[in-house]
Design brief:
Radius of gyration: 22 Å
Strand order of the largest sheet: 5-6-9-16-15-10-11-13-12-14-2-1-18
Strand content: 15-25%
Helix content: 10-25%
Number of strands: 18
Distance between the termini: 16 Å
Number of domains: 1
CATH class: Alpha Beta
Order of helices and strands: EEHEEHHHEEEEEHEHHEHEEHEHEEEE
Oligomer: single chain
CATH topology: Rossmann fold
CATH superfamily: Vaccinia Virus protein VP39
Length: 435
Amino acid sequence: MSVVMQNSQGCVLDACSLIDQWYSRCIRLKDNKKSHVRCRFKRQCFQILKSHYCLNADAAVNVGNADVLQKTNKSLKKRKRKHSELNQGELDSKAFHEKIRSVILEGTKSLLDSARPLGYLNGAPDELKEPLPSHECGLAALCEMAKELPLVDDEEQEECVQSLVAEDGRTSHVDLFCRLTENREDCATVVTLMGEEYVIPPHTAFLLSDFTRIQPLVSYARRFDLIVMDPPWENKSVKRSRRYSSLPSTQLKRLPVPHLASPDCLVVTWVTNRPSHLRFVRDELYPHWGVEVVAEWFWVKVTTSGQFVFPLDSHHKKPYEVLVLGRYRSSAQNATSPSETSAVPLEDQRLIVSVPSALHSQKPSLSEVLKPYIGAEAKCLELFARNLQPGWTSWGNEVLKFQHTSYFTLTPIDDHNYVHQDEIPKDRTDEPTQS
């Protein structure tokens, strides 16, 4: 179950359970042999037990972690500030926070009050002592090296797509950098790519490249009903950490969204809490693509006990991130009636409450949350992806990052104990609880 519950203010997600659903059936291909395995994402990645500034373990959401913030600010006063007055960016951030503070605070409390009787966000029963996976992702560097490879001609469109697994059941010799790779199997597949093992979800397609090699995605000849992107925004912390390469905001206009979007396509962009980034998306990026802004949602990050991961009023980091939702309006669309999914109203200022991953830049899947607004058979695309999703197409220079087997626990299963998905009792359901 991914959507634990939902009401008029938003929903509560169990992100880890959704990932496990994707790999309920998994085949491992190794040394030309096939075996069944049970595949689960490592639980310690979602064991956020305490607020990052939690000096008081009993701090509650319904007061916005005010006591934690007070003690934290006292310790921060010891640090000298170069400027006593707030700069314009800080003033804008403060004004935006004050505008939405009550929405975050009251909505989160309402959702937590509904989720806790169902057994969620009451605290983790057992703390997992295992360390976080520490796999060093070198995919971006490989993409840089792949720029020396010849590009696939536009005329060779059919060759822009390749199958992950050959007809004889063996892993194909795949070109990950110049062609889209499809896993056409009905189950997840563990395969060796570039000398490393990765878990690939069923019915998924991906392209490992940067801007210079995005053309195969355009040549894929597929229009998408949902496009989700998490751009590598520029900020000081990214530059200091050097975890990944950032991208100037203006470069995002180069994304060929009009060539990828179907009429009424829902476009969703993760935005940092810098007001300049939010203004850029609303006032420049979306209009440049012909996308009409229709709503802003907020992802609220809480611990396993339901505390904000950062105090709500923290001057350093906020416990929420913004999603800007818009509809692509093609020039020919004005003469036609809107589709059924576009007629479904997108409510503004909805919350998505979940325990975040401890892994940097791993966002929760929006597939179940957005399904009512795009339809069950919608074609979905993620740009700047760092993981794959069943039925989705994904693009990015780290598109396989969180598919590496170091993030999963793989348990061999005897063939006679293997249970097919269609053999699971029909009385089990994953439908979210309404309240």
